[in-house]
Design brief:
By secondary structure, this protein is α+β, with helices and mostly antiparallel strands. Helices cover 19% and strands 51% of the residues. The chain is built from two helices and five strands, in the order H-E-E-E-H-E-E. Strands 1-2-3-5-4 form a five-stranded mixed sheet, covered by helices on one side. Strand 4 and strand 5 form a beta hairpin.
Length: 109
Amino acid sequence: MNINKEIINALKDIGVPVSFQISKTEKYPYITFFTYLDRGTLHSDDEELITGYFIQIDIWGRSDYTNIEEKVHKAMLNSGFIKQKYYDLYEEDTKVYHKVMRFLKEVER
């Protein structure tokens, strides 16, 4: 299981650049992502049966990114990810709008 490939594949048709952790472009909007927690979510007889990949997707933009957010939401759910929480930020130092979208994907070992 390569969670990064799964995320990139899920977001390939969004229409904006998608990168692991650090953007490869300076043009807005773009998306970055990372795994913030990788842990067993189900155990039996001291064995991990299901691994939970908790991932964060960040949308970065200089203007309204609502249409991108909707596309990301649908794409991730269609790829078997479970919504955890979303929130909006504004990066004062760079004057960039920032949408945080957190998801979980559970995978049998």
